[in-house]
Amino acid sequence: MLxxxxxxxxxxxxxxxxxxxRSVFPDIWCRAFAACALLISVSxxxxxxxxxxxxxxxxxxxxxxxxxxxxxxxxYTRVLSFxxxxxxxxxxxxxxxxxxxxxxxxxxxxxxxxxxxxxLTEFMTPRGRAIPPDSRSNDRWFQHIxxxxxxxxxxxxxxxxxDVRHSSPAPQRLPDWNKNAGGIEAFYFQDPDGxxxxxxxxxxxxGSARWHQPAGGALFLGIDHTAIVISSTEASTKFxxxxxxxxxxxxxENHGPEQERLxxxxxxxxxxxALRAAEGPGIxxxxxxxxxxxxxxxxxxxxxxxxxxxxxxxxxxxxxAAETLRSASPMRAGTVTTPEASxxxxxxxLIRDPDGHAxxxxx
Length: 363
Prior knowledge:
- It is a single chain.
- The chain is built from eight helices and 17 strands.
- By secondary structure, it is an alpha+beta fold.
- It has two domains: 4-8 and 28-129 and 299-362, Roll (2,3-Dihydroxybiphenyl 1,2-Dioxygenase, domain 1), CATH 3.10.180; 143-290, 2,3-Dihydroxybiphenyl 1,2-Dioxygenase, domain 1, CATH 3.10.180.
- Strands 5, 6, 7, 8, 9, 10, 11, 12 and 13 form a nine-stranded mixed beta sheet that branches. The chain has an eight-stranded mixed beta sheet with strand order 2-3-4-1-14-17-16-15, with helices on both faces.
- A hairpin with a 2-residue loop joins strand 3 (105-113) and strand 4 (116-125).
- The longest helix has 22 residues, at 28-49.
- The radius of gyration is 20 Å and the shape is globular.
- Residues 1-49 have low confidence and may be disordered.
């Protein structure tokens, strides 16, 4: 079967994030063929695995690529109360095959907040591209983590005292008419590299019970979910629920001035669906019903680019997972055995979802 990315092999995609949308996908028929090929292959894999146990047993962590690991660790530990758990530096065949980046030498730190984890990775060589300064919340390379607080006013004052870069003009309270989201308070901001982050406060009738337990003075409690911008809720649900085994946990449709200011996108109307594995933070789909014009994930993206995020899922058998995924991913799914225990897993597969977001499956 033709790989969906093969159509773009000879296109000029260098620095595609800074080019108009028409230069990222110059051939609309090629794009349509790629989408159909992916849908067919995902459906085939779903049928083959429909009676099996869930491929993903947990969301292990959320990873992002940073330009200066020490600076980023300082920001997340000092400003957001994360705790550094471990770190390593590596190069050679295993990390090159895991990332698909030849000549890679990386430094990685694993951080914890409450019961959730993030991983920050600096590519010492080769360096990738920066996050474009004109990135918007409806571009499909957008991803964030939602950090829970029980006191939005205090959390916002704390972030202001550390001069964080705003994405939202101020915290927003979603209106009560929205049954599934009314009363939620949220604020978007950025880390030193421009990665989008969110602080989130749930009213008493929403969110996990753990977010309403006494916090003992802690300002930031943990990570509720990671959110990704997608083009089709149905296609993403086929991938994450029907193929990977996550369960739908809730949904809403958000619009109005509060949502527009939260995302800083005028006219924003979002279809939102949350999915969860048995353990770990959720994965939230953000489908922009309006406005149109969000740019697609660049087909030449690599893990050393600073707009790279990856959601790590744990599986019981990476080789069996690779067989299921092989025909369903825009990237060739094969397992990489990791000789270094410091990386925290034995085997790894790096794939892409229907919109290009990176998903790492580990055993």
